[in-house]
């Protein structure tokens, strides 16, 4: 069995969390020196001018590898990943190759010959596994550094610049010099007033006085896109309904621009924001709403998911938007085994200023059930639609948004 070198023994490292040791134990136990298993060949070890290092052939127990990936996603390090098993597997394999010296390096080739029916775990010491696990958190920190994501919102003015640790709302002509400095860009490479905000190289969309920027900080594209949907949800709830629901058939400029350490990225994805029929006059009250609910959502996972649901619903048809916003209520208040009752209780508590809030919620949930169970196709066909309209003097689809807004605002400003 491979032994820890004297040099390694003298190193002083922090004890890794037991859950990460378990992840690595399961993963290494799934790497075999001979079949059966999926063949995995790679080159590892130190390389100088294209030479050096060594090649190794292992056979992977896919079931153990997947279990290790799932345990990683559920561990304290899981929040640094994008939540997919595929990425977790890639990270574990890349880390194994990069830090293979901690497990004996080229000595594993001799282990493969002398003990072909064993696994890597069988042929390393427990101390080596601990040392291997100890560097993993730092590896993730280096691999997944914070990035800045930016999209334009045409037709929506930024009346008050917002700068928070996780998100920003900027005017169209914001000087991006600080972003360039933070991510080691030349200031001349990032320019305001156009999307993408690069000096050259893309088909550009010019921005004007009625436009603005939405941006967020995240370690992955997946998180960045989710946070931008969250921002869209805050805007959707914060704007007056006469403005937020006046959506044209046009589309916001396509693309997600990101700035990373010394480089940029651009994905041609659809914007989470709708194109409003006419430029909207944004008040300071709207800016206050957006700032406060997004700030509160930073430490409240239920609120953050609800806002993402609202953002995803904004561009949808009335029927689909209604269903998506019902999910937002569930995100805020739903409790397993008593979803309907817990939502009604949550609405009653957090929308105290809305007359008969619990009764409104009850009827909205009944309409949601009609749509979900196929008893009605369109919202207006639901059995309770006419009663709701006559009783409260408002369309259910609009009142649902107002009720959700009241709950979100109360949760955002409520003392912790």
In short:
With 416 residues, the protein is of the alpha+beta class.
Tell me about this structure.
This protein is an alpha+beta fold and 416 residues long. Helices cover 46% and strands 14% of the residues. The chain is built from 17 helices and 13 strands. It has helices spanning 6-10, 18-29, 62-73, 85-98, 107-114, 126-134, 136-143, 177-182, 221-238, 241-244, 284-297, 301-313, 318-333, 339-350, 357-372, 385-392, 396-413, and strands spanning 31-32, 38-44, 54-60, 147-153, 162-163, 167-171, 194-195, 205-206, 212-218, 247-251, 256-260, 263-267, 274-276. The chain has a six-stranded antiparallel β-sheet with strand order 5-6-9-4-11-12, covered by helices on one side. It has a three-stranded antiparallel β-sheet with strand order 1-3-2. Strand 5 (162-163) and strand 6 form a beta hairpin. The protein is globular. Residues 4-12 have low confidence and may be disordered.
In angstroms, what separates the terminal alpha carbons?
54 Å
Numbering strands along the chain, what is their spatial order in the largest sheet? Answer: 5-6-9-4-11-12
Molecular shape:
globular
How many strand units?
A: 13
Helix count, DSSP H or I runs of 4 or more residues: 17
Give the SSE string: HHEEEHHHHHEEEHEEEHHEEEEHHHHHHH
Mean pLDDT: 92
Strand content: 5-15%
Structural class: alpha+beta
Major sheet size, sense and barrel closure: 6 strands, antiparallel
Share of helix, binned: 40-55%
